[in-house]
Specification:
The structure is a single chain. With 89 residues, the chain is an alpha+beta fold. The chain folds into two domains: 1-41; 44-89. It contains one helix and three strands; from the N terminus they run E-E-E-H. It has a three-stranded antiparallel sheet, with no helix packed on it.
Length: 89
């Protein structure tokens, strides 16, 4: 199941949860209002480089490879957290 990030527009409470792609939460567990919004996750912005830019010397695809490695590390960390939560129950 995918992980989603939510923020309440009223009380500013933020949390993450796992649920199916068809589901969408609306009720905030803190203030109990229907003011939750889904916050985009894994947003990655990259500026265009020029020849004078030191980043321009990087190999083609290196930014993508770095992003994939970061995503793998995040996934591994999330997996470890879920394992700990499962064994604690």
């Amino acid at each position: 199941m995918p992980k989603y990030f939510y923020r309440c527009t009223s009380c500013k409470h933020e949390f993450q949860t796992y649920h199916s792609m068809q589901d969408c939460l609306e009720d905030c567990s803190e203030c109990e209002l229907k003011t939750l919004i889904r916050v985009p996750s894994m947003v990655y912005l990259h500026k265009k480089t020029t020849r004078q830019d030191p980043d321009a010397k990087r190999a083609v695809g290196s930014v993508v490879k770095e992003f994939i490695e970061d995503a793998k590390r995040e996934l591994h960390n999330d997996k470890e957290i879920l394992k700990k939560e499962t064994y604690e129950q």
